[in-house]
Amino acid sequence: MTSDPRPQPYVTAFGPDFTFAFDDWITNPAGLGEVPAESHGRTVGIIGAGISGVICAYELMKMGLRPVVFESGQFGGRLRSQSFEGTTNAIAELGGMRFPLSSTAFYHYVDMLGIETRPFPNPLTKAAGSTVIDLAGETLYAETIDDLPPLFREVGAAYQQALEDHAQFGALQAAIKARDAALVKELWNPIAQAWDDRSFYDFIASSDAFKKLSFRHREVFGQVGFGTGGWDSDFPNSMLEILRVNLLGLDDDQHYMVGGVEQVPRGLWTRSPDKMVHWPEGMTLEKLHGGSTRPGVVKVRKQGDDGPFEVTDRWGRVERFDALISTCQSWLMTTSMDFEERLLAQDMWMALDRTRYMQSSKTFVMVDRPFWRDRDPETGREVMSVTLTDRMTRGTYLFEDGPNAPAVMCLTYSWMSDALKMEPLPVEKRVDLALDALRKIYPKVDITQHIIGNPITVSWESDENFLGAFKGALPGHYRYNYRMYGHFEQSRMPPEQRGLFLAGDGISWTPAWVEGAVQTALNAVWGVMTHLGGHSHPSNPGPGDAYAEHGPVDLGG
């Protein structure tokens, strides 16, 4: 139920690393596949009740298998929506909050659940209304890019030129949209080879387009960036990750979920599938689990090479499973769980432990109404705007549900070192620091007189179940991602390593975006299905069937 039409053709579900159309696979009337009748009711343990784990459970239940989900923290993972006291639509989105319409596999489930979405108020969008950019003490007000000084347009043009000069951006994006797998591979594979060892900042600083400009241009690009705002916290990351964001439209046409994105995993938990085998009509994951998930996992073992997995939860209960899916943050498999080492190859443990996670902090307050829509009588401008700044707040976002209804301010959304500045502070101090920074930008606006209720905050790096917000691959990490992402195709693995599958956005090619979590979940579903003797429908081959031909390039080593 989006208020804007979907872009055509869809992008994210196809390439560039794995040129497979996930949206076609999950919407095909033939279904994802089937397991033989003798496998119906066989058990699959799933570690983690985030969107990846819940989708795995939902799709496997449809096939007649018995998923059992373990969760050590909060249901929903990083799709975490917290309501302010006494409200339903005043929501603090503590994790994922903006979802590009190109994320077609994710939106398959959003639409199935009938969740309403609206355009996200990103800087310089119609949904934002107005934007303020405050850099080096200079405050600029804009409703479109044309309202900003020429320097900002020069920065934008330089980045687009750099993409074209060094990544064949136009040709590659056209090939992805056309789903021309052969051309995508022809264009992308050499780029993966060339840019695996080079950072985002290297791409900017070494490009011919930016060499013609000043350091100030690069500095402004870091603070303001493209689409959702500043990207300097990603400057150390592999340029390949940023290229995927641009190529797949992940920073474009973003929406938010009215009532909170946590409705998606919770909706799947309580929804009875339209088509389901083995289980009685009306069966849901909630009913299958007796009302709640299992507690967190502390130990994983396997009986012999081909025997069941033994999973011990935090209360000492041991259950046995015919297959196992781990969707948790990768470090947890060596820090908070006693995972039998032989279940993964040593180079896989290397990849999981070397995965690098980025810090992130958000602080929200509820206000009595969207007062920012008031007009300054002297300037005629809105009194406050979506704000990008080099001050501690970095990004401030404004959400409303009507002119007289309570509204929500994300006072500060920051990453990496800016997030670490907040990490040791209590929520009240975080609010005070954010308000102090915003006072310098809006000296005539008293935000405090509008605040109602208690503030809400999160620092993902201090949560023992996450240890960070999302993966941010460094230069040289492509090979790690190659190992993790392709692990679901297990035909060449030794017997003791088969039957354990990995999923979640941290092993995807698009970390920090929910589409990566959804696609790796679907990979794991295919893996479990084939491991238990099943197969895709001949007319609807799955990701494992297509992997040899359409999988990512192997850089060796």
UniProtKB/TrEMBL annotation:
The catalysed reaction is: L-tryptophan + O2 = indole-3-acetamide + CO2 + H2O
Q: Per UniProt, what is one Pfam family of this protein?
A: Amino_oxidase
Matching Gene3D superfamilies: 1.10.405.40, 3.90.660.10, FAD/NAD(P)-binding domain (3.50.50.60)
Molecular function (Gene Ontology), one example: tryptophan 2-monooxygenase activity
Instruction: Show the InterPro entries listed in the entry.
Output: Amino_oxidase, FAD/NAD-bd_sf, Flavin_monoamine_oxidase
Give the domain of life: Bacteria
Where is each Amine oxidase domain found?
51-527
Keywords per UniProt? Auxin biosynthesis
Pathway(s) the chain acts in: Plant hormone metabolism; auxin biosynthesis
User: What GO biological process terms does the UniProt entry carry, in alphabetical order?
Assistant: amino acid catabolic process; auxin biosynthetic process
Quote the EC number.
1.13.12.3
- In residue numbers, the region (Disordered) covers 535-557
Composition bias, Basic and acidic residues: 547-557
Regions of compositional bias (Low complexity) in chain numbering: 535-544
Which family is this protein grouped under? Belongs to the tryptophan 2-monooxygenase family.
What is this protein's name? Tryptophan 2-monooxygenase
Whose protein is this, by species? Pseudosulfitobacter pseudonitzschiae
Q: What is the lineage of its organism?
A: Bacteria, Pseudomonadati, Pseudomonadota, Alphaproteobacteria, Rhodobacterales
